Amino acid sequence: MKNKNILGLILSSGLFIIGFIIHGNVSLYFNISGLLIVCGGTVSAALISFKFEQLKIVTKVLITSYRKPIMKETEIINILIDLSIRSRMEGILSLQDKENETTILFLRRALGCLVDGYKIDQIRDILNTEMYFFRLRREDSERVLRAIADYLPAFGIVGSVVGLITMLGGIGDTSVILRAIPIALTSTLYGLILANFFFLPFASNIKERTNQELLLQKIIMEGVISINSELNPVILKTKLESFLTPSDREVELVSYAKIKERFNIERDRQKEAQKSAPVHLE
Predict the structure, then answer these.
(1) Rounded alpha-carbon distances, angstroms, from residue 191 to 23, 35, 53, 65, 180
(2) Residue 264: how many CA atoms within 13 Å on its side-chain side?
(3) What is the pLDDT of residues 151-202, one digit of tens each?
(4) Angle at 241 (CA atoms; ends 239, 242), nearest 5 degrees
(5) Model pLDDT for residues 106-155, shown as the tens digit of each residue
(6) Which of 18, 191, 231, 273 could link 152 by a cystine bridge, Cβ 3.0 to 4.6 Å?
(7) 220, 107 in Cβ contact below 8 A?
(8) 144 and 54 Cβ atoms separated by less than 8 Å
(9) Are 197 and 187 in contact (CB under 8 A)?
């Protein structure tokens, strides 16, 4: 996570916790029975719904999404421009050395197709297939997290029902009722907090990272295909920068003076003015 995100998370979480502390006893919000019902029920439902191996994959994807920063689009473009220059100067086979040094798996796969001499249609088909199944795998991880987020409030309600049943069974005994009330109330609280404060944001983070990585993969695919077509590096740079936002581009806009000069705008206006001018007969 970026430093600004971490700072914002700390400040907003502090405000969230202060809201619990400011008007009440903090110990009232802790109840082991309610926490066990919510967490135990949710984990059981997740194990029934999904394979254990899939849950491990989701955990790995989630940890990676927060620990490993993703490369910027400009860095990928610079790598591709460098590869384009090398291929023009030393030939396509010179990329074999660069293929083994690159840390991005998708770029290595694309360069492997390039070095092996695949045709453009074959490279595009292979990389599109790679991108398609990459997106499906990430969508599966996101779906698992959203399913768990749906389970949590439901088991919070289960905990509340358990507390209400205990209260009804202890009518006439004040001590039983006082012990059951925290279970009924805190269980719903735990379910809502865990779902909306953790698992739904986790799923959104994976979705955002997936979209960013898919954009990088599209840039790589277009760059590698252009290198295979021996596109001029300057033209390649202009083409790949179309994937970037205007603020991230290094291209300077063409001045209006050059546009007028290129398309002879002033000359055309003068010609039209001369044609439309009234003719004076003597």
Answers:
(1) 22, 9, 25, 24, 17
(2) 5
(3) 999 999 998 888 888 777 766 666 766 677 777 788 899 999 999 999 999 9
(4) 70
(5) 888 898 898 888 999 999 999 999 999 999 999 999 999 999 999 999 99
(6) 191
(7) yes
(8) yes
(9) no
Show Cβ contacts of residue 131 under 8 Å, excluding neighbours closer than 6 positions: 214, 217, 218, 221
Residue with tokens 């002033």: 266
C-alpha atoms less than 13 angstroms from C-alpha of 19 in its C-beta half-sphere: 6
Tokens of 236: 């390649």
Q: Name residue, tokens 């295909």.
A: 225
- Of residues 229, 219, 215, 224, the one with CA closest to residue 112: 224
Write phi, then psi, for 67 (nearest 5 degrees): -90, -45
Can you read off the two tokens belonging to residue 183?
A: 């279970």
Q: Is-contact 205 66, C-beta < 8 A?
A: yes
How big, in percent rounded to 5, are the helix, strand and coil portions of the chain?
85, 0, 15
